[in-house]
Amino acid sequence: MSSQTLYTAVNQGRNMTADQLHALLTEPDLAALQETAYRVKLREIGNVVSLRGLVEMSNICTKNCYYCGIRKGNTKVKRFQLTLEEILFAAREAMAFGYGSIVLQSGERNDPAFVDFIEQAVREIKKLSNSTLGITLSAGEQTLETYQRWKTAGAHRYLLRLETSNPDLYRKLHPADHDYQNRRNCLKLLRQCDYQVGSGVLIGVAGQTVEDLVQDLLFFREMDLDMIGMGPYLPHEDTPLTQQFPEVGTDSAKQLEWGLRMIAATRIFLRDVNIAATTALQALASDGREQGLQSGANVIMPNVTATAYRDGYRLYRNKPGTDENSAGSRKELQKSLAGIGEIPLLNQWGDSLHYARRNRN
Ligand code: 5AD
Ligand code: SF4
User: Fold this and answer.
1) Ligand 1 pocket, residue 313 CB under 6 Å
2) Cα–Cα separations (whole angstroms), residue 212 to 22, 99, 168, 179, 192
């Protein structure tokens, strides 16, 4: 009956029910699920991949998420903050490579110096690139005013993962002062500021069920997200979650499979949103990101952070690319994309088609 599940899912698209999503996610024929999602991606977007140069600006974080290697409580991490010059250097490199867009990612801080710094960095990148470079921010929960300032400075996309749509699970993965409702509300504030809004979840984390993942998919639809960035949970040795559940996340094949299942289901369900094939997939298999593309993803974020800082941004064990330089990452990527018949979109922002359509209607 598996082909019936896939047939129904493709026909229903955004109208799928929770039961249909459950059947889709647990489709016994994984290859058929991936192929179906890839066909939907070809129909909606074509055999093209959008690229964003990823700049890891700082690993200083005021939060203490139990799963994350750069949580505040991990005193083993050497903290860094790129200077404005270093950020501009990375932006220039991204432009030189033809990446039409960059993602500025950082641990979360809310102090005025941080807010000012990001605003200035965005402004300077706009100036430097003559506004040709698209700018996505990923710097956590902020106030409406901060989001607005950064938008006015020139950022147009924002990524804020909810991590899980299940409030009980959220409480188990975070200290008591990390507020699920506030995080959800931030996504609304971002929409209010007219960003293209992205979110996502951890996949295969301790305590999570398939039903939770179904609810995560429904949450993506409910928030009418433009972009999805999600990836398998990977244990980090110095985190409370790994200490509490040492076995969870250690079956690489299973973690990868569920990461791919979620990408494929999201593509079939939501059709025209941007979906990233994240680095966490690559940590599980050397061609993990390519498998992500072949399961319906259409965005890749090659790292353009100076190699010297890469190890400092280690969210989980075996994070790939921490010892190669940006040019090395780029060459490898070009080869591997050609190998799967995907064409990189050079010098383009690669905006979410879903965002354009929502604003047209
Ligand atoms: N495994 C996978 N992803 C992780 N992140 C943080 N820690 C881990 C981990 N151990 C992800 C979170 C966060 C993003 C920056 O990195 O989803 O939003
Ligand atoms: Fe900070 Fe993000 Fe890590 Fe949480 S997941 S500790 S907010 S960097």
Assistant:
1) no
2) 10, 35, 11, 18, 27
DSSP string for 57-120:
EE---S---TT-TT-TT-TTSPP-B--HHHHHHHHHHHHHTT--EEEEEE----SHHHHHHHHH
Q: Are 84 and 124 in contact (CB under 8 A)?
A: yes
Instruction: State the distance from the centre of ligand 2 to the C-alpha of 153, rounded, in angstroms.
Output: 24
- Residue written as token pair 């994070």: 319
Pair 32, 2: CB distance under 8 Å: yes
Question: Does ligand 1 come within 6 angstroms of the Cβ of 161?
Answer: yes
Sign for the CA dihedral angle at 259, 265, 270, 274 comes to positive
User: What is the rounded average pLDDT of the residues 328-335?
Assistant: 78
Question: CB of 263 closer than 6 A to ligand 2?
Answer: no
Ligand 2 touching residue 63 (CB < 6 A): yes
Starting from the CA of residue 231, give the closest ligand.
1
Cβ–ligand 1 distance for 158 under 6 Å, the answer no
Nearest ligand, CA of residue 164?
1
Pocket test for ligand 2, best of 54, 108, 142 (most atoms within 8 A of CB): 108
**103, β-bridge pairs:** 54, 136
For β-strands 274-275 and 227-228, DSSP reports them as: parallel
In this predicted structure, what is the pLDDT of residue 267?
A: 98
Mean pLDDT computed over 230-259? 97
> According to the model, what pLDDT value does residue 131 have?
87
- Amino acid (1-letter code) at residue 226: D
Beta-strand pair 53-58/101-106: parallel
Q: Is the CB of 66 under 6 A from ligand 1?
A: no
Model pLDDT, residue 314: 84
In the chain, the percentage of residues whose pLDDT exceeds 70 is 96
Token reading at 217: 């998919």
**Distance (Å) of CA 245 to CA 104, 179, 334:** 32, 23, 38
pLDDT, tens digit (0-9, with 9 covering 90-100), for 168-223: 999 999 999 999 999 999 999 999 999 999 999 999 999 999 999 999 999 999 99
Which of 57, 71, 319 to mutate to test ligand 2, by most ligand atoms within 8 A of the CB atom?
71
